[in-house]
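Example (one chain per record):
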Amino acid sequence: MTTATTHILRLLRWGRTLARHGALRIIEEGANTPAPVRRLCRLARFGTLQPREPDYARAFQAIGPAAIKLGQTLATRPDLVGEEAVRNLLTLQDSLPPVSFAAIRAEIEASFQAPLETLFASIDPEPVGAASIAQVHKAVTTDGRTVAVKVLRPGIREKFGRDIQTYEWAAAHLEAFGGEATRLRPRLVIANLKRWTARELDLRREAASASELAEAMHSFAGYHVPAIDWDRTNGRVMTIEWVDGIKMSDIAALRASGHDLKAMARRLVLAFLNQAIDAGFFHADMHQGNLFVRPDGTIVAIDFGIMGRIDRQARVWLAEILYGLTTGNYRRVAEIHFEAQYVPSFHSVDEFATALRAVGEPMRGKPVSELSVGQMLDGLFAITRDFDMQTQPHLLLLQKTMVMVEGLATALDPEINMWDVAAPFVRGWIRDELGPEAAIADRLREGVRTLLGLPDLVRRIEDRYPAKGGAPEPPPLPEIELVWARRQRAGNHKGASWPGYLLAGGCGGLLTWWMIAQGWVG
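Predicted structure:
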């Protein structure tokens, strides 16, 4: 087990890196920062020169892979780190210098226990991308297909494990200080980070996520998920269909190729809504580097290490919240927050509805270029403290992805109105999922499920209460107090039983003397 001294030394080392980039100031000067944390910050920055403008993104990149993932997680938490830090963290690029091809080759051969040549006819030693967890090489399989081969960096799992242990230790101590730290639930933030990175560090799970998303989106025209080569995929290596296209970040190239950028922006937003609200399973790393556009205009997604999942009830609440905000029904949005127990019941629904109106009204009917989903989320975070709303970890990825999608859509079409695009889809989904027909269908499904479960229920009742056999029923038997039960009961009387013991001992002694005197006992 890692000692407290080791955790503190790691935190001090990371703190000095943060200080050199001016990124420690936000913690040290925070109004809600506990005094012990403030003292640790002062110790970490001692002797360093801090720039006037903090650069959080470069600081996390300098610390290492686990810190990059932590920075991406914190980019969803303006309530925790502030709006300025979030804007900077959204520029955080998950890229590191590549590992040598010799190490990559050894990793592939060790994971498959086979020579590289038996898997691939050729593989480019120069990576097409090198991130904090893995790097990607272009290759051709032995049967002639062009593929992308993603390989984990050697030793990355062990490094992540060590760093996340320290994050957990620090978060537990921070939360134990109480106050604002408890409400912000830093331990859950780290728990989510640990769960996300565990998925990313097992490339079989990433491949499974890609397969599941492809299945969920197969009927959505103009959106494609590359196919997985399962024969060349394991926990440390993933082989996937190669994508030829223009990166969505290259707006000039997209425009020069004649693509309809306005239609593309709408399709991107609707693809996200289909994933998040309809399927409840969405690509949660939709930055510009992970989206390509084919010559026919099809949007192709890559990198499925970070995926979000929302259960049906949460999707219903989300759809109603979005629809309520687009139509100005703030009372219903407030009620949903209370139904979902996001807001404690001792607060007023009407007061919360008024606070939501202050966030939503400035946005309605305006393009993203003027007001945005990101600003709406910032506004919502601003009122969480007044209404004692705890962080909802299952919505963090969704919030982050909404901001990403908004940024991509705005880059393609600065005049797009996210609400106008989302409203018809959300309205249709609510009608299909919450309308009278859907309610009847749900009742029918529940009824059929209950009927189908009756035979199993009867069998379990019979197991618990078996039928009487052919032998006659035994007569009632008298209750007999056991010796040890009597002794235990007598012992419970403590001192009250000692006179009885003395009397019994005396009588026994007299009887023994008389039997010896009579010659009965020799």
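Caption: The longest helix spans residues 436-464.
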